[in-house]
């Protein structure tokens, strides 16, 4: 079938959840059996997000192939539960760079390169390339920025051109905002009307409007927007604030958004299956216990306000994991400069401390103080990337008595470079070749047997994403392990330390520090794992114990079936029970054989 493209734009103000809306739309269509991918377009001249200030732009998300991109790609991966790649992200800088390189190579054959003609064509080519690489039937394309800004006009023009040539394949969804001024106490629709009209001035008629507000949009406001903007009231979808962002797809589906989209795109209205998603959301909302987590970093403050966008994936990782253990996380943002001025009293009362990634020397002493507080106070500590490196420095200073211990990123002349720049990075730093040159993307690792890393991954091997230039100095390995800090994981060749773990694993003394950014893992394990019991008659025929279980986990659209005990089930038995091929159960096969499978297998949840 011809690839369908859904453009998503935002209006009135930024930060109202365009990325979550895009992710939710993609999830809903995927739940109806279509192959999906999503693209984020940032209207910046930067080639990627790697050199952007996280306070201004938010988290830099890393893909397996090393692409440094916008945090919305993290949302796409978490909602779609699939791995994305560099074709899923574009910036205006990439678009212009490609056009200029092609012009220098004479690919335009002497023709004039036009500002408002060639960039939209380049954008369309990139969309088609992404669809092909990801084998997507539907592409959801998020246009960064706010309608009315000049920066995103090229993307809107690409949308307009595609609509002209392929009207049945292109659809536009506009997310807009309806404020409720406290002094008035009434929802106002005029800003939303104006943003939709600005979209029309760019030559685009919205097919659907997602109406964001504090509460559900009432029929009167829907009617106002419909009349002013030439839409049906049924095509205006209410998008109120929710307690948990993973409720957003369910809210959209309650208004039949995916069904309406499929109808407008002339696609078959396949049945939707959001059962696992509903279970996950329910678990998150009904968790009974609470855990107070201190997130210590230095990218929180923006003027007089505190933002969490710089560490979005860390926060979402906590939110994913907590319901699995019946916890609701209470996360507090602690700016490390506050620790430097007020001391460790700001860390009192927390159940755990996390230090995520970062760069540079600013506010580092506050982070080191927090790490020392955690170690000496036996508060569970989890360090990621920079949080790992600084924990190693703190351990060297206060346990190994190496007073001058440091990372060469902060003090290039330190006598004890516990963390040092990789050899191949020194030339890049000296030559100021800094963009896109760090250790980036997914790297395989091997875990030491018997460590918490092996236990967590249920394997001695794994893969995690990286974004850093500096590494643990192997000259200090023996000293660290002698004093109880174990090198729990390394790269496959054993050369680079990937994880350090305190030797004592008693709960009150647990300390785990990782050089990789496991917060950037794309899959939501709690969304995609479950267990099935084999009915008694099958267990008896197979000679299995009564308590024998199989575990199901999803990996890129495939369900992996594996036993949870040492005993293994021959694939021939699995074929008889689940109608599968080998040890893999294809999602399409599940849908075809759902009734038969449900009759023979009693499904339960972890």
TrEMBL record:
One of its GO terms (biological process) is pyrimidine nucleobase biosynthetic process. Pathway: Pyrimidine metabolism; CTP biosynthesis via de novo pathway; CTP from UDP: step 2/2. It catalyses: UTP + L-glutamine + ATP + H2O = CTP + L-glutamate + ADP + phosphate + 2 H(+). It comes from the Bacteria. It is an enzyme of class 6 (ligase). InterPro entries: Class_I_gatase-like, CTP_synthase, CTP_synthase_N, GATASE, GATase1_CTP_Synthase, P-loop_NTPase, SpoVT-AbrB_dom, SpoVT-AbrB_sf. Residues 521-566 form the SpoVT-AbrB domain. It holds the Pfam family GATase. Signal peptide: none annotated. Its EC number is 6.3.4.2. GO terms for molecular function: ATP binding; CTP synthase activity; DNA binding; identical protein binding; metal ion binding. SMART domains: SpoVT_AbrB. Keywords: ATP-binding, DNA-binding, Glutamine amidotransferase, Ligase, Magnesium, Metal-binding, Nucleotide-binding, Pyrimidine biosynthesis. Belongs to the CTP synthase family. PANTHER family: CTP SYNTHASE, CTP SYNTHASE-RELATED. This is CTP synthase (glutamine hydrolyzing). It comes from Candidatus Curtissbacteria bacterium GW2011_GWA1_40_16.
